[in-house]
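S.,

As promised, the CU-O-CU linkage run. Input:
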Amino acid sequence: HLLAADAAIVEHTFHVGNLSVVRLGQSQVITAVNGQFPGPKIEARDGDTVVVHVVNGSPYNLSIHWHGILQRLSSWADGPNMVSQCPIPAGGGRYTYRFNVSGQEGTLWWHAHASFLRATVYGALLLRPAPGASYPFPRPHREATILLGEWWNASVVDVERQALLAGGAPNNSVALTINGLISASSEALTVERGRTYLLRIVNAALNYQLFFKVAGHNFTVVAADACYTDPYRTDVIVIAPGQTVDALLRADADPGRRYYMAAQVYQSLANATYSATATAVLSYHHHQQQRQETMMPSMPAFNDSAIAERFYASLTGLLLPKVPTVPLRVDTRMLVTFGLGVTPCAPAQTLCNRTLGSVAASMNNVSFQFPTAMSLLEAHMRGAPDGVYTRDFPDRPPVMFDFTGAAAAAAASMAPTAKGTKVKPLRYNETVEVVLQNTAILGAENHPLHLHGFNFYVLAQGAGNFNAHRHVRAYNLVNPHQRNTVAVPAAGWAVIRFTADNPGVWIMHCHLDAHLPFGLAMAFEVEDGPTPDAVLPPPPPDYPQC
Ligand code: C2O
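Predicted complex:
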């Protein structure tokens, strides 16, 4: 591909290795990129080519995913371990990721996509308009990146091991972080009164959906997952793991005071016990700060689902000439149920609690198994999926039970969860609608479902059972917002629609990290298109082998 005249190549080298950091008075060795935590920021403009040379000097095999990058015709650079590639070997393995930014502006991020390593291996990916183009809102005075994360006083690889062995949820993190720091009382953002700032907010936490507020200030949301939204004014931002929000903040408060920004856990579980808050300070330039306490925002209750519902329901897509409108013709309709259940350990399964069994999450009763010999994408390229995956991911769940409450639990225990590596094959340019139904079998949890390789329209979402007759009338087919990660409410549903215009293999999975090894995933296999510009090129020469 020829670059547009003013497009650039944005090149980075990521050295992955050990880094010693002190948090909560304790020293901890983490896996990090270039000795930085959070990792380096990648800044590109629409139309640029991004090239990242990864040198894996860490003790773990890993891969890096560019979360939300569409990867048109570059599925090889997507990054999920054993889906688009074998891992980059520990102790010095290398792989160069190369992809174009095409038609994307806003905030995305990158993270390790192998075991729990993304807890510390992540960073921001900031996409700005092409030269000569501008934001569809007044130019902000400055920008600030806000990466929300979680912290464990332990090796995160051990935390994952423990979760798998215990057959349950991982140990809670000990704290939430803002830009890698725990409850900092140092300045995170210094503003000038009367100016407008663009906050680029990323939820990089492993297990928690979050509320985010800044005391004394309001936001105008302008984008979600690097897709522009109609300006939406709110005092609280709701953000699930994997999601991003771009919001304008006008510095219009009393400049003589200091203000906390705060992120706090949102959990719909009625009996949730974990409630952590991370803070950082916003203050005003050139002002004698009065000797007053820093103002803390009043945070919602940890389980205030009404706030979360209102936030998501208020987002609509900004209609721009260059943004395609929602496809009205649907070629393939799927109903995908998903949730957590328990299965007995398989005889050869090493990380499994022999008494309790293992937590097996599933989609349409298939618990996704990552292949071990070859990545899905490589098998796809060879045209020989035999032994790696099968093309029989079901369009509907095997049993059409009442998805909520005790009936669901009973029905689920009768409908066995099968382990498998099943993909849903799609024709090039096919339009797909998926009703995502959270069955909430084991604990009522919101599951943020992330689709690689595409943005999808969120047509509707709601609580309880999806009902085709009732809910179809609620679809927004005029200006639904687009994203790559949708937080499907506990015991609720969401309807998404996308066009399969990107050949390759693309995983869709829960972005609560523990649910990935439990199998809360499936994959789409999109065939090549009819013209040369719609054919996935061969893998790069340094493509890792297993
Ligand atoms: Cu951000 Cu498959 O992940």
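The helical segments are 156-166, 305-313, 376-381, 405-414, 468-471. The CA atoms of residues 426 and 526 lie 5 Å apart.

- D.
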